[in-house]
Structure formats: structure tokens, C-alpha cells
Amino acid sequence: MKFKVGDKVRYIYDYPCGAGQYIPYGACGVVKATEEPFFAIEFDSDVKGHCCGGYARAGHGWWLMSEHLEYTETFEGNV
Fold first, then answer.
1. Rounded distance, CA 28 to CA 76, Å?
2. Among 22, 29, 56, 75, which is disulfide-ready with 41 (CB 3.0 to 4.6 Å)?
3. Backbone φ, ψ for residue 17 (5° rounding)
4. Residue 16: beta bridge partners?
């Protein structure tokens, strides 16, 4: 498993379809749950998402695959 609950991650997928039309490239969030191959990410800002089954605040959550994310230690430069 690439990420674990509590890890800070940055969205690095740049594709204007699906999640990419709502989540800005470089947006940061926290891993709230894992259900391989997906990770429930709660973003700081509202990304027109959902609550990931109760793991994230409404509108801030999105289930994403690991190839769309990278680990980050800080949220500097958060979009």
C-alpha cells in the first residue's frame, strides 16, 4: 500500500475529465481511508466531491488511485 490513513498528499493528475475537472492540479488533502486500489482523500477546499462514505467532509472528499497522488510533508502552495 502506497499511502496510509493520515498521510498528506498532493493531487498530481492533470486530465480535464472525471475528478480532474473539479480538483485543481496540486491540491492537497489527507488520506482518510483506504479501500484498494482507492484512497479516500479529504481536500482542504470544496472540490465538488462527496463525503467518501462518511470519511470526509461533504464536498471535500474524493476516492482516488495512488497514481493520481504524491506524498507531501507540507501543504505549502495548496490550491
1. 9
2. 29
3. -145, 155
4. none
Could you report the per-residue pLDDT of 52-75, keeping only the tens digit for each?
A: 999 999 999 999 999 999 999 876
Q: What gap in Å lies between CA 10 and CA 23, rounded to an integer? A: 11
Report whether pLDDT(79) > 70: no
Which residues partner with 40 through β-bridges? 33, 63
Phi-psi region of 11 (alpha: psi -120 to 50; beta: other; left: phi over 0): beta
